[in-house]
Amino acid sequence: MEKRSNEPGAPDPGERPDAAVELPLGVRVAAAWSWRLIAIGLALAGFLWLIVQVRIIVIPLLIAILFTALLAPIVQWFERQGAPRWLGVVTALAVFVASVWVLITLIVSQMRTGFDDLAKRSEQVWWELRHWIESSPLGISAEELDKFVNQIFKTIERHQSEIWNGALGVATTFGQLVTGALLTLFSLIFLLIDGKRIWNWVLGFLPAKAHAPVDAAGRAGWISVGQYVRVQIFVAFVDAVGIGVGAALLGVPLPIPIAILVFLGSFIPFLGAITTGALAAFIALVYNGPVNALIMLGVVILVNQIEGHILQPLVMGNAVKVHPLGVVLAVSTGALLAGVPGALFAVPIAAAANSIVNTIVGKEWIPGSDPVAEYHRQDKIHHRARHRARNVAKLRRKEGNS
Asked: Which of these ranges, 86-95, 160-169, 319-328, has the smallest mean pLDDT?
């Protein structure tokens, strides 16, 4: 009769070995992390797929959120002065519409007079360039040059949907543009008027224990988005003034449209200002020659260096708490995944995500509090106060009539 070993830890011959015990600890930890990361990746992929399906709604809503973060301080200032909220909302919307109207008017009025001449001069420069290449020792004929240029245009045409659309896509028809603009405007109005109520309504779908953490994280993310928008306007203004003044001093035509285009393009970090600055160098080449164009290109590079090494690290980095390398990677990833919309929204999303994660990790909320319940309680108090004020006003009118 066999004797069974009584040594501690000795395997039982009648039992099958347990994989959880036999596998090394590192393999078990890696496996546990792996399936969890796969689950998170699948959830994110499903979420992104859903966003792509409703992109005609998502993009205007995101634009409205950015504009709300920009205009909300105006509304809050009116409330601090004791003025009604609707007055602050009307003033903010008026400032926004007036600013957009001024930018569009300046671009259209300036380009209307200079665009035809720019097109004619561009054609003239192209034929001069062809003649110079044909007479140069490069050995390139006009037919080879035309074939090369046509190949470039065909490549751009084949990939233009990837360049402009990406996963999210942009409006490609007039109807989509109008629909997106109206949806952005309506979303902006309602977010300015009733943003707190909308946020608490969203929180109401979560369990009560999650109200305080999600509210604190959401508010931190909102602050980062507001700081990003305001700082980005400052950065875009510096880029526009620097390149616009440089173009004016060098005698480059259309300095005002150039400055406005640089201002608008700067909202796409790193890529927008370079692209619009290259347009300024091209206009300088067409009108003033290669030397002037090289100097203009130097001004563009200098302004972008100031933005990249001073404004972005110091001003933008301190405002949104995202390292410049993180900004570059976020913009590149956003452009790769979603084209122009992805590059536009990459930095504010990264800034908000950074603040949200830091708030949750630091547990920066009051334990046991419920902001949704507190909001409803304050709302009831204000409702009763308004009802009481209306009754008092009615009684006074009756006494005055009698």
From this structure: 160-169
Distance of alpha carbon 88 from alpha carbon 74, whole angstroms: 6
| Rounded Cα gap, residues 221 and 356, in angstroms | 5
Least confident interval from 28-42, 61-75, 186-200, 262-276: 262-276
| Residues 239 and 273 sit within 8 Å (Cβ to Cβ) | yes
Find out whether 34 and 154 touch, Cβ atoms under 8 Å.
Answer: no
Helix axis angle for 208-249 and 55-80, nearest 10°, is: 90
Quote the CA–CA distance of 164 and 368 in Å, as a whole number: 47
Question: What does the block give as tokens for 219?
Answer: 């508010």
Is 136 within the bounds of a domain?
Answer: yes
Helix (H) or strand (E) holding 75: helix 55-80
Q: Where are the alpha helices (DSSP H) in 165-271?
A: 174-203, 208-249, 255-265
In the block, tokens 């796409």 appear at 268
pLDDT band for position 38 (50/70/90)? very high
The b-or-e profile of 231-261 (16+ CB within 10 A means b, else e) is bbeebbebbbebbbebbeebebbbbbbbbbb
Give 275's Cβ-side CA count (13 Å radius): 12
CA atoms of 305 and 105, how far apart (whole Å)? 30
Render pLDDT for 167-197 as a digit per residue (tens, 0 to 9). Answer: 455 555 667 778 888 898 899 999 999 888 8
For the whole model, what pTM was predicted? 0.72
Residue 45 has pLDDT above 70, yes or no: yes
Give the length of the chain.
402
User: Does residue 314 belong to any structural domain of this protein?
Assistant: yes
Examine residue 215 and state whether it is found in any structural domain, yes or no: yes
CA distance 125 to 127: 6
Return d(Cα 224, Cα 36) in angstroms, integer: 29
Tell me what the pLDDT averaged over the chain comes to: 78
- Calpha distance 216→364 (Å, rounded): 7
Instruction: State both tokens at 180.
Output: 């997106």
Whole domain around residue 220: which residue ranges? 55-154+166-369
**Domain tally for the chain?**
1
Structural domain includes residue 241: yes
**C-alpha distances in Å from residue 116, one per residue of 32, 83, 150, 226, 262:** 65, 50, 23, 40, 21
- Tokens for 42? 């699948």
List C-alpha distances in Å: 39 to 29, 85, 324: 16, 45, 30
